[in-house]
Amino acid sequence: MTAGRDFYKILGVPRDADEDALKKSYKKQAVKYHPDKHANKSEKERAAAEERFKEVAEAFEVLSDKDKRAVYDRYGEDGLKAGGGGCGGGG
Fold first, then answer.
1. Where is 69: in which H helix or E strand?
2. pTM of the full predicted structure?
């Protein structure tokens, strides 16, 4: 996975997109890249569609969560991976 992906670009929404715009774009792209839609394609095309489907789902997961979105907007994808979401450790 490449660090620094632009989740807004992946979903095709502006940075100030509201929840409804995120949902609409996510649903449209999820249907477009869903693995079942590519069952009759070549292995390469299926793999590409599946990877894109996963990216779209991850982008929506981050941008639809207010806390994760704030961390992403401030620090980018690396901030999310570094635990910028404020998760506590065990003890």
1. helix 66-75
2. 0.81
